[in-house]
Design a protein that fits this description.
25% of the residues lie in helices and 15% in strands. It is α+β, with helices and mostly antiparallel strands and 208 residues long.
Length: 208
């Protein structure tokens, strides 16, 4: 991946909005501090044919961080900052490109390049819309969060709808399909202050 060297940069984390959910699974001081950048393999990830992992998210994250070194996106590399990230899969980004353009290439690098054409500032807002800062929200708490409104690091909110074991995240876009949490990809990095859940669509904040 072309942007790997950007991962080595260290920048100060910006102050972000706290999550309204404080699950009791573990006290904050007992949690470890391995950042999500480690478990998502950002330094080592590369484009491949597996549409269920996070290569495109990696590319976009690194490009935004490289273009905007003071951006709050760097927070997911700071393991001492407690947060929950809802991370779209590669397939989710392909769906986004199709939503925006009417068609989407199958090649992951081409999908990433199409997303990068939105510009670093727009992608920064999109990435931060997937981050909720505060005590990590594990899947048992998420399943009890029907009707909750979560404050994101982008300064905008999304809503949670739970129907049985289906967790839907309702974003600000009326025309784009809402994201669903992938139950086989939850609680990534459990036991640390930063956790992630895979989702099947890219959530869209208000961009203007």
């Amino acid at each position: 991946m072309k942007k790997k060297k950007r991962y080595a940069a260290l920048v100060a984390a910006s102050a972000l909005v706290l999550s309204p959910i404080s699950p009791a699974q573990a006290e904050e001081q007992a949690l470890k501090t391995s950042p999500l950048t480690e478990v998502l393999n950002l330094p080592r990830a590369s484009f491949d044919t597996n549409s269920g992992d996070y290569d495109i998210f990696t590319a976009l994250f690194m490009d935004v961080w490289g273009a905007l070194p003071d951006s709050a996106v760097s927070t997911i590399s700071k393991g001492d900052v407690a947060l929950t990230a809802f991370v779209p899969t590669d397939r989710a980004f392909r769906n986004l490109v199709r939503h925006l353009t009417g068609s989407a290439p199958k090649d992951e690098e081409a999908i990433a390049n199409a997303a990068l054409s939105l510009g670093a500032k727009t992608l920064e807002k999109v990435i931060l819309y997937h981050v909720v800062v505060g005590n990590p929200i594990l899947s048992p708490a998420a399943l009890q969060a029907n009707g909750a409104t979560l404050n994101t690091a982008a300064g905008q909110t999304f809503r949670v709808k739970v129907d049985g074991t289906k967790i839907t995240l309702i974003d600000r876009s009326k025309k784009h399909k809402n994201a669903v949490v992938l139950l086989n990809q939850v609680d990534i990095n459990k036991g640390n202050k930063q956790v992630a859940h895979g989702i099947d669509q890219v959530m869209l904040p208000k961009l203007t």
